[in-house]
Amino acid sequence: MPKKVIAFGEVMMRLQVPGYELMTQANTLQYSFSGTGVNVASAMKNLGYDGYVVTKLPNNPLGDAAISFLQRLGIERDFISRGGKYVGMYFLENGFGQRASRVTYTNRLESSFNTANGSDYDMDLIAENADIVHFCGITLAMTDQVRENMKLLAKKVKEKGGLVCFDCNYRPSLWDGGYIQAKPHYEDMLALADIVLMNEKDAMFTLGMVTDKTSKEEQLKDLIPTVAKRFHIQTIAGTHRAINSDNTHSLKGYIYKNESFVFSKSTSFSVYDRIGAGDAYTSGILHGELAGFPSEKTVQFAATAGMLACTIAGDTPMSTETEILSAMTGTIEDIKR
């Protein structure tokens, strides 16, 4: 039977401005549904697992539309609760050249997910079914009740022998109290996690760690082993990204496991849709860990998955294992017939 990957998180409506226009220029928007949990669950479904989302959606046509969208992605609806009136939304303006892409959140705190109580979810049933459960820092930034739900579910999954994955995903716009407010909650989740997605910036700013190293890679090598040891984390992975002068992006991944680092090749590529690439990388790491890949293959697979996600419209990674393995060879094909 396929292993069950369960992601806890909000399902949001993505409202995208056409092309590279600004919101002040556009008069139409294209909507879809997204969220880190949606992206990870769908990506893992495409890699051969059963993907679930633990969330709450309104019991109205908006919630029906969200569930219909999730089902088209192959995400199971067993752990979706219904109630409330709203979904969180975000508006996306695509960047170009030196202008960065911009995400503007709205209506988050009033959403069905962010007003849900722990009793809205059957935590014990979810924990019984989870081979791995995924959480992210975007969800952690929401409310005290959401944070309580996250930590309770993580504890229950660990008690049942499942793995806990935590993607740090710090978003400054979501924490009113900044790093000071976030730090204790990040420490709680790191202490519960088996697999963590983070880089040296998370260690330095969110955890307040200090290093005298100057380059990103040196800082990473200095700080990540300390994080792994302090919180007893089996695997830590992450990426370094850059935007090149020709508007292409570069991506290099790393994994730290068994007290050693392995890095992927640095890959440059054109970007069609940037949002969701980090979730694709996460799914690649999870697949490598669950499938028992050696670290060298896992990190290259994850980096390639992240690259391919940038070539597909929408947040949600859509690549299969076969497609990712083919792209790992570095060949660019014209048309597959």
Characteristics of this structure?
337 residues; alpha/beta; UDP-N-acetylmuramoyl-L-alanine:D-glutamate ligase; ten-stranded mixed β-sheet; 37% helix; 22% strand
Characterization of this structure:
- The protein is of the alpha/beta class.
- It has a domain at 234-337: UDP-N-acetylmuramoyl-L-alanine:D-glutamate ligase.
- Helices cover 37% and strands 22% of the residues.
- The protein contains eleven helices and 14 strands.
- It has helices spanning 36-46, 61-72, 123-129, 137-140, 144-159, 178-192, 200-206, 216-231, 277-291, 295-309, 321-327, and strands at residues 4-8, 12-16, 30-34, 50-57, 80-82, 89-93, 102-106, 132-136, 163-167, 195-197, 235-243, 249-257, 260-263, 267-269.
- The strands form two sheets. Strands 1, 4, 5, 8, 9, 10, 11, 12, 13 and 14 form a ten-stranded mixed sheet that branches.
- A hairpin with a 2-residue loop joins strand 12 and strand 13.
- Helix 3 (123-129) packs across helix 5 (144-159) and helix 9 packs antiparallel against helix 10.
- The protein is globular and about 50 Å long.
- The mean pLDDT is 90.
